[in-house]
Amino acid sequence: MLREMEEQPDAVRRTLEALLPLRSEVAGLFAGRRRVLFVARGSSDNAAIYGRYLLETHAGVVGGLAAPSVATHYRSELDLTDTLVVSVSQSGATEEIVATQDWARSCGGATVAVANVADSPLVRAADLALVTAAGPELAVPATKSYLAQLVAMAVVATALAPAPTALDGELGLVAGEVERLLEQRSGVEEAARQLATTAYTVVSGRGLMMGTALETALKLEETCLRPVRGYSYADLRHGPISVVTAGMTAVLVAAPDGPMLAPMTELAGDLAARGATTIGIGGDAGFAGACSLAVAGPDLPEAVAPMGAIVASQLVVEALARELGLDPDNPRGLAKVTTTDPAS
C-alpha cells in the first residue's frame, strides 16, 4: 500500500497526459444534453461525489449519483436522453456497474467509462473510455487508482465548463504537492497514535471535500477495522453532534480556502468544547490551530485540493494499520473487485 501511495505523483502526471486530450470528446458526447449521472460503488462512489461537486460548482452542469439497483433490480425504464452517464470502477469489472451502464444506454444515455483497466467490460462497452494511468494496483485498498479517478473527474468537469482549460494551472500543481506530502508526512504519526487509542471516530467534511471525508472514513473502516462514521458537515450538525463526547476522536478534512473553510474551523472548536479530540487534515493555519492535532494538507485551491488531501488521509490510515499490527495491504474480508448481491 505504501509503495503504491508513493507512485501517485507519477500516476497523476500520466493520467493528466492521457485524459486531458479527450476533453473535446467528452464535450462532444454531452452536446445537446443537460445533466450528468455518475454510477459507482465503494471508493469509486466517493470519487464520483467529488466529480458531482466540481461539475456543479465549476462547470455549472447539473450532476447526480445513480442508484444502481434502480437498473439491476427494479429495472426501471427512465428517460436518459438528456443525460451523460459516467460509470466509475477501478477494475472496470464490477458486474453491477457494467450492467447499469448497459441499462443507461438502453434508456438513451451517452456513456463514459472511467476505469484503470483498459481491457475491461466497462471500458469495452462505453461510448467513450477514460482509462486512468495509475498502473496495476496490488494492495486491496485503493490509493493510486482512487487518486487517478479524481483526476478523471476533473477532466470530465473541466471538459463541460465554459472555459475548459481554466483549471489547468492548478491541475499541474497536484503531482508536486502529492510528492511533498509523501515526503514530509507532517502530523501523520501523531494522528495515527491518537486514532489507535480512541474507541469511536467520526469523520466530517463538506462541499468539494465531502468525498474525501467519506473516503477517509471508508479507509479507516476497511483497512484498520475501526468503527467509523463519515458525515457531511451539515448532517453532523443536524443531530449526531449531540452524541459527541469526551473519548471520541473527530477527523475533519478541509481545503485551505473556499467558503467551507470557516464553517469547518468553527466545527473543530465546537467538537473540542464537547470533549472530543479533533484531528484536522488540511485547511489553513486557523483551522489547524482549532484542532487538537493537525496533519498537513496540500497547498492547492479548493477545486483541486481533494486530490492532495486524500493522500494525507491515506498516510494516516497506513500508519494506523501498522500501529495496530494489521496488514494494510490485505484487509480482512475485502477483495479488489467490488461485488454486490446479484440481480434477481
Total of domains: 2
Portion in strands: 15-25%
Uncertain segments are none
The CATH superfamily of the largest domain appears as: Glucose-6-phosphate isomerase like protein, domain 1
Tell me, briefly, the overall form: globular
CATH topology of the largest domain: Rossmann fold
Query: Which percent bin holds the helix content?
Result: 40-55%
State the name of the first-level CATH class of the largest domain.
Alpha Beta
Biggest sheet strand line-up: 2-1-3-4-5
Total number of helices: 16
Radius of gyration: 19 Å
Distance between the termini: 36 Å
Q: Summarize the biggest pleated sheet.
A: 5 strands, parallel
- Total strands: the figure is 10
Task: Encode the helix/strand succession as letters.
Answer: HHHEHEHEHEHEHHHHEHEHEHEHEH
What does it look like?
The protein has 344 residues and is α/β, with parallel strands linked by helices. It folds into two domains: 2-172, Rossmann fold (3-Layer(aba) Sandwich); 179-323, 3-Layer(aba) Sandwich (Rossmann fold), CATH 3.40.50. 48% of the residues lie in helices and 15% in strands. It has 16 helices and ten strands. It has helices at residues 2-6, 8-19, 23-30, 42-59, 68-72, 95-106, 121-125, 144-159, 168-171, 174-184, 188-197, 210-224, 233-238, 261-273, 285-290, 305-323, and strands spanning 35-39, 62-65, 83-89, 110-115, 128-131, 200-205, 228-232, 248-254, 277-282, 293-295. The strands form two sheets. It has a five-stranded parallel beta sheet with strand order 2-1-3-4-5, with helices on both faces. Helix 6 links the parallel strand 3 and strand 4. Helix 4 (42-59) packs antiparallel against helix 12. The two termini are 36 Å apart. The mean pLDDT is 94.
